[in-house]
Write a structure and sequence with these properties.
mainly alpha
């Protein structure tokens, strides 16, 4: 029920063509930053492998990160505000990435990101 209320509330947001383009660029930037971090970690893990069977630890790490990333990244407009807040909280997205998006939306993103800090 809460998800439906959230969907109903946020689906009312109007996204201009420009805002949609900014949101899409910001989303892609955050996704690529996080994937680059995963790749960097994998490279580090690979250089530290002293036993060939340690390669399976890398596979386990990749599966875990893939699941986390797939659950986190969702570009449907009725959830994108909370997705952006989570990405800001996690450090993958900055306010500068979202420059040009309506101030009300930016305020809601910032408020939700603050909420995540309190959890």
């Amino acid at each position: 029920m809460a998800d439906q209320c959230l969907k109903d509330e946020w689906s009312k947001d109007e996204w201009s063509k420009q805002e949609k383009a900014i949101a899409h660029r910001a989303y892609k930037a955050a996704y690529h930053r996080e994937c680059a971090s995963v790749l960097e970690n994998v490279r580090g893990m690979a250089t530290k492998c002293d036993d060939p069977t340690s390669v399976w630890e890398i596979q386990d790490y990749l599966r875990k990160k893939q699941k986390e990333i797939c659950e986190k990244y969702d570009f449907r407009y009725y959830v994108i505000i909370s997705v952006f807040a989570r990405l800001m909280y996690d450090g993958w997205l900055t306010k500068e990435d979202l420059a040009g998006i309506n101030e009300d939306k930016l305020q809601r993103i910032a408020e939700i990101a603050e909420f995540y800090k309190k959890l």
